[in-house]
Amino acid sequence: MAESSSTPVVQPDSFAFDAESEAEIAKIVAEYPPGRQASAVIPSLYVAQRQMKRQTGSAWVPVKAMDAVAHRLGMAPIRVYEVATFYFMFNTKPVGTYHLQVCTTTPCWLRGSDEVTAACRKETGIQGWGETSADGMFTMTEVECLGACVNAPILQVDDDFYEDMDGGKVAELLAALRRGERPKPGSMAGRQTSAPEGGPTTLTTLEFAPPAGTTPAGTEG
What we know:
The chain has seven helices and five strands. By secondary structure, it is of the alpha/beta class. Strands 2-1-3-4-5 form a five-stranded mixed beta sheet, with helices on one face. Helix 2 crosses helix 3 (63-73). It is globular and about 55 Å long.
């Protein structure tokens, strides 16, 4: 039975950035002018989420981690809470080993997101959004447009996009993840980036100008 989205969240008693995270945040903060450290809040929250993944196997941002970000950047904690709860890419409760994010917005729906959703539920035992499978491996979330409509439907796994999906491809992908394998992200139909199905139909003979300061081929001498 899947874990319900209403299951109470157990927050850790403390959180401290480890050496890897401290080094990352130092580089991030250095990119902003003095006094503008608050601009680093989004990438810093990513650092905290990745650290939780390393330490617990679940990529999420507990309240204590938000407090650590606020302290590190000299911000009021409420300002960090506002950012972390506004953006869907930050998980404010534990998720499974793999976070399945299914886009159901119109382009993906027209191209078969219902089939992708059904396959995710069949393969994981998850019935509702926001639930985690009984084995703790998968959490499934409904998301809005992922910005890759041309290769719809999209299934995002953690930070990776798997495009041109259908029920069979979902089953293959989740089976690979269960084996500890991470298939290469991108089109699962062999599409060349965002080209039409079957390959490019325009600009197939495009020739680019040589770099400045070089001589075009065939004009030497």
